[in-house]
């Protein structure tokens, strides 16, 4: 009998420690009748820690090795708790760490992003080795797959763009034969490779996207993201009270909200699923029997208000120096630069002599963008702003969202209000 193919994604929080990994094993036991492709992230916070290693190496601060050692020990300790006595997994993960140690012995590479991907990718490689080894000890025979043998990207490090045709071909060639074995497949989220076999990454939190790429290429019946929340909520519970779970959501709602900072799902996840009409479940690994949220192509027009807050926004005000109008050729030049820097523009507005853009303020991208513009324009940047997006808004909610905040830019279209705000202390009469 042909088994049903499902793609599961487990994020860093679900693999945080031995207890959580055992919990994942327990969840998987309920799916032995299915064919699973299991995509795992690095263990909780490992990617952040590896970023620090990269930075320390780039700056030659002298503590890169010690920071790496910490990451290594964290994994060894975990293995000590999961496996009894000696186990081949120690050698496997040691080999991975040795590769990073070699990088540290050399001068930092001039291309930071390249170096980043070669080092940070270790998080997923190691966690997938551990999960794979663990499943085999609990009678869930599984195969380990190197996602870099399947997902091909262009040469842009830290934000590789998937080359779909080749990726589909490679999935056919590499994964299809593995599926014949009737065993689970464990692979890594987040990482991919260039045509020259250099490791790339898909952008922070990219493991959801990886799972969607596999779902697409293998025509999965469904995809499930296992999270520490009961499903997709109407707002971030760390920021808002009285949030509720959405039982059902259309692809369109999901993509709109995630694009603007709802952190539950990586925004790139929806498109491959929508294109093949593969439903997405968001479920809780803490309460795996809960219904979670079901995301599909169905259209439902009666949604409660939903709020997404995206931090670290920069508002870039670009104006002509000589009072000439901002014309098409200016805008075209600005957009050419935006594409070059792969900036994400969240909102924009133009007036006679200026053009305002709200964008994600990542690394020094916005500064480099502004520097280029400076030859032709006057550029002002306002930073540390928040972008608040409200779908299906109600006026009273908007008022409370604005409390203690100054609205620098606001836009309303049909169901959506977006505002770029700056926190200001509320003055109170003494
Ligand atoms: N480990 C990567 C990150 O933390 C990818 C992911 O978790 O989705 O960004
Ligand atoms: Mg994650």
Short recap of the structure:
This protein is an alpha/beta fold and 430 residues long. The chain has helices at 18-29, 46-59, 64-82, 89-105, 112-120, 122-137, 164-179, 207-218, 251-259, 270-275, 328-341, 365-373, 395-402, and strands at residues 5-10, 35-40, 142-144, 184-188, 191-193, 199-201, 222-227, 248-250, 280-284, 293-296, 306-320, 345-350, 354-360, 377-391, 405-413, 416-423. The model has no long low-confidence stretch (mean pLDDT 95).
How does this structure look, described?
There is one protein chain. By secondary structure, the protein is of the alpha/beta class. The protein folds into two domains: 5-227, Carbamate kinase; 306-423, VC0802-like, CATH 3.30.2130.10. It is 37% helix and 24% strand. The protein has 13 helices and 16 strands. The protein has helices spanning 18-29, 46-59, 64-82, 89-105, 112-120, 122-137, 164-179, 207-218, 251-259, 270-275, 328-341, 365-373, 395-402; strands spanning 5-10, 35-40, 142-144, 184-188, 191-193, 199-201, 222-227, 248-250, 280-284, 293-296, 306-320, 345-350, 354-360, 377-391, 405-413, 416-423. The strands form three sheets. The protein has an eight-stranded mixed sheet, with helices on both faces. Strands 12-13-11-14-16-15 form a six-stranded antiparallel sheet. It is globular and about 70 Å long. The structure holds aspartic acid (ASP) and magnesium ion (MG). The site of aspartic acid (ASP) has 12 residues, from loops.
């Amino acid at each position: 009998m042909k088994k049903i193919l499902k793609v599961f994604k487990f994020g860093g929080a679900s693999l945080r420690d031995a207890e959580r990994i055992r919990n994942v094993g327990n969840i998987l036991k309920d799916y032995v009748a299915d064919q699973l492709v299991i995509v795992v992230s690095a263990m909780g916070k490992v990617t952040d820690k590896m970023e620090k290693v990269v930075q320390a190496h780039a700056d030659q601060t002298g503590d890169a090795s010690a920071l790496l050692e910490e990451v290594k020990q964290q994994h060894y300790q975990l293995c000590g708790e999961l496996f009894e006595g000696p186990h081949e997994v120690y050698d496997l993960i040691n080999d991975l760490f040795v590769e990073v140690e070699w990088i540290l012995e050399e001068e930092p590479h001039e291309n930071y992003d390249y170096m980043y991907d070669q080092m940070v990718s270790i998080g997923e490689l190691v966690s997938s080795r551990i999960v794979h080894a663990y499943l085999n000890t609990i009678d869930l025979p599984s195969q380990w797959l190197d996602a870099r043998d399947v997902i091909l990207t262009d040469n842009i490090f830290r934000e590789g763009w998937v080359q779909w045709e080749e990726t589909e071909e490679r999935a056919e060639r590499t994964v299809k034969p593995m599926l014949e074995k009737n065993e689970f497949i464990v692979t890594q989220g987040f990482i991919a490779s260039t045509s020259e076999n250099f490791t790339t990454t898909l952008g922070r939190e990219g493991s959801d996207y990886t799972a969607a790429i596999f779902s697409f290429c293998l025509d999965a019946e469904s995809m499930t993201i296992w999270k520490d929340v009961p499903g997709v909520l109407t707002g971030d519970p760390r920021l808002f009270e009285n949030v509720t779970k959405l039982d059902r959501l259309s692809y369109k709602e999901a993509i709109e909200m995630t694009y603007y900072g709802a952190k539950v799902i990586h925004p790139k996840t929806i498109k491959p699923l929508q294109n093949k009409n593969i439903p997405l479940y968001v479920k809780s690994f803490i309460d795996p029997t809960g219904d979670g949220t079901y995301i599909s192509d169905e259209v439902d027009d009666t949604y409660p208000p939903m709020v997404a807050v995206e931090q670290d926004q920069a508002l870039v005000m670009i104006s002509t120096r000589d009072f000439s109008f901002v014309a098409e050729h200016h805008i075209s030049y600005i957009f050419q630069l935006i594409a070059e820097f792969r900036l994400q523009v969240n909102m924009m507005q133009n007036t006679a002599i200026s053009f305002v853009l709200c964008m994600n303020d990542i690394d020094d991208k916005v500064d480099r963008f502004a520097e280029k513009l400076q030859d032709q324009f006057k550029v002002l940047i306002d930073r540390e702003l928040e972008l608040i997006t409200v779908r299906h808004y109600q006026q009273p909610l908007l008022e409370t969202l604005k409390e203690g905040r100054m609205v620098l830019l606001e836009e309303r279209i049909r169901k959506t209000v977006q505002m770029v705000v700056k926190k200001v202390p509320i003055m109170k009469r003494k």
